[in-house]
Amino acid sequence: MTTTTRAAAPPPPTRARGDVRGARRLFVVRELGIALALVLLVAVTAVYNPRFLNAQSRKDLMLGATILVVLAVGQAIVVITRNVDLSVGSVLGLSAFATGKLFVALPDAPIVLAFLAGIGIGLLCGAVNGALIALARVPALVVTLGTLYVFRGIDYSWAAGQQINAADMPGGFKRLGTQTLLGIPVLALFAIVVLLIAGFYLRSYRSGRELYAIGSDPAAARLSGIRVGWRVFTAMTVCGGLAGLAGVLYAARFGTLDAAAGTGIELNVVAAVVVGGVAIFGGSGSVYGAALGAVLLSTIGSALPVLRIDPFWQQAVVGALILAAIGLDRALTARIASRLRGRREVRGA
């Protein structure tokens, strides 16, 4: 009498696919976690001081986040490609001062001309960054660190110590910084439109999806026929254009301008993107997460003084959030890689 031993059947491939989808959902959960942290921060601060959520405070919170959100959207597009743009603060300052100089020279200039000029300066600066990175093959960190000082130097040389006051701005332009529509500041609507357009593009267009492929593996993307240099150039140019737009919004909100406008904001922008779940190593994340990160950091800056917490802790909290975000990103990446290896082993069985 013989006994036949039947080999165990391998687990179905659908299980592996389900594991991969589950790992991908972790990135969505991370963005939901950021939203939850934001809600908890606002709730705790409002309990401590109910005036934190009155009409004027809500307006100030939205205005405070607007410029950072616009910059974070552009930075997220660049970081997704495994690059970074450290010059956005200098581009903002240059376009903001250019906007003020335009109205000083042409008091009756249409507002749309100011937007076109500011965005145009930003696009030019972004194109310079993109060309040096894509054509000269110089790392983005090195290029944009250099252009940060170059663009700021141009701004200081142009300003020559001059300050532009709100009185030099036309009334219609200044009202952009104070008007609301359905309770939402007009400037915040600009940020919302930018966010929706960028999110739709990255999700719905092939060229947008190719940015993720470049960030995941630039060499493999190049071998698959993706024009890596052109895509990186485009991402840097768009980021510069959005920094130029942020400069115009900055001018509309604050009115008083000098060559120091936007100094140091590039670090907050990178922090917002990383905290928002965009992998600093490229290939994953979304502009929505980056916008949430920007709103969270902006709210932290407004909430901690209300809670009577030393400003030092604001920087410490932001630093801790960055470290936590990077650690979580590495953990999620390792988990996804493990799931993908398991999937390949199942297929090979």
Automatic annotation (TrEMBL):
Q: One GO CC term of this entry?
A: plasma membrane
CDD domains the record matches: TM_PBP1_transp_AraH_like (cd06579)
Self-association and partners: The complex is composed of two ATP-binding proteins (LsrA), two transmembrane proteins (LsrC and LsrD) and a solute-binding protein (LsrB).
Q: Name one GO molecular function term.
A: transmembrane transporter activity
What task does this protein carry out? Answer: Part of the ABC transporter complex LsrABCD involved in autoinducer 2 (AI-2) import. Probably responsible for the translocation of the substrate across the membrane.
* Transmembrane regions: 32-49, 61-80, 86-104, 111-136, 182-202, 232-253, 259-280, 287-306, 312-332
Classify the protein's membrane topology as the record does: Multi-pass membrane protein
Keywords from the named record: Cell inner membrane, Cell membrane, Membrane, Transmembrane, Transmembrane helix, Transport
Q: Which InterPro entries match?
A: ABC_transp_permease
Tell me where in or outside the cell this protein is found: Cell membrane
The name of this protein is Autoinducer 2 import system permease protein LsrC
- The answer, when asked if Transport is one of the entry's keywords, is yes
The primary site where this protein sits is membrane
